[in-house]
């Protein structure tokens, strides 16, 4: 690995416009430079707001797929695999905070890639981060179109709803700071949690799920252990990874914290809430629905509950598209203007760069949502190809980068174990990324070939076909 000679407070770009962080001067930042009066304050998110933003990068899309994952894997293997991935990504998320405190000039995964692997690493890590956020924003746009179809009883062409979601995402993701977006995250997280709990209660009270045979006796056909093919199993695992793949977004979120030292408090609150909700919703909905669970899961409790749930969830689904589009746009914005006074000043260059970034992100998300309008397939592909890389391999490399040289001089048992763990994270992440991508692509192809499958730029009602 390439050991950088930069100190923790130096900018990789080295531009003279970026002042060094000195003492407790909170008006100067190692990433954004001088925080100027009248300009955007990029260091204004408290630890609670940080935790909610982190939750919103995860809760909103992945939770809607867990019952289907359990149907593929079986309830017991599904829960065990989910808890294993939860533990692995918790360590990865923890490493984000450690690495940020050790290297305050790091803003995103591209900076991590450059520090460890040089210019090539910067470009690869940066492209993967942006693509993942945009792919996930595209998934959110699909989920918003599903909600609008469900609420309006398919009042117009689905392609129109996709366009409406993309336009709304562009407008609201153009809010410049996470501090101002965090209040939207509170609303979004609350709405998603209430919606999925409404469905969870609804499936327990109903006689049978809406997709099950409506005549004769019916009993849930849930299984404790399933027998999936390799392609089905690896695609399901990729969906679990997607549900925890907010890790890459945690770098730009912690960069806008008032006190990055409180990152761990925000992280553990986020991870605890997310995991409890995932287990509760996945197990209960699958237990009552069995193989007749809908994807997304909000459609599993019948037409009335479906409308109620989607009505409650709509702000949360919209917030997912907004936040993920914002993070992708902010990466491009910082990449272009970092080291100049334009980044924190209300100049023409500032605004044209920012709005250009948000428009480009919304446009690509719209094209993805329209071109691959398969909720489960897009979630699985994004989780395998992009989410895995952001949640496993870089974090193993980050620990080795910070600890290899000083530890090998006098290696302790703890150091040796951590070296093995870090290497394991790199290896298992690479395997899951390659295998999961293959499985996801096969699944998408099969969905397009299937009778009644979703079509690109389709007017069909996607609230009933998924």
From TrEMBL:
UniProt keyword list: Membrane, Transmembrane, Transmembrane helix
| GO cellular component term, pick one | membrane
Polar residues: compositionally biased ranges = 1-12
Q: Give me the segments passing through the membrane.
A: 72-91, 124-147, 153-172, 184-205, 233-254, 266-288, 308-327, 348-368, 374-401, 413-438
Topology of the protein relative to the lipid bilayer: Multi-pass membrane protein
Residues forming the Amino acid transporter transmembrane domain are 45-441
Q: Does the keyword Membrane apply?
A: yes
Q: Where is this region: Disordered?
A: 1-20
InterPro entries, per this entry?
AA_transpt_TM
Entry annotated with the keyword Transmembrane helix: yes
- Record's subcellular location: Membrane
Q: What GO MF annotations does this protein's record show?
A: L-amino acid transmembrane transporter activity
One matching Pfam family, short form? Aa_trans
Q: Which family does it belong to?
A: Belongs to the amino acid/polyamine transporter 2 family.
The protein depicted here goes by the name Amino acid transporter transmembrane domain-containing protein
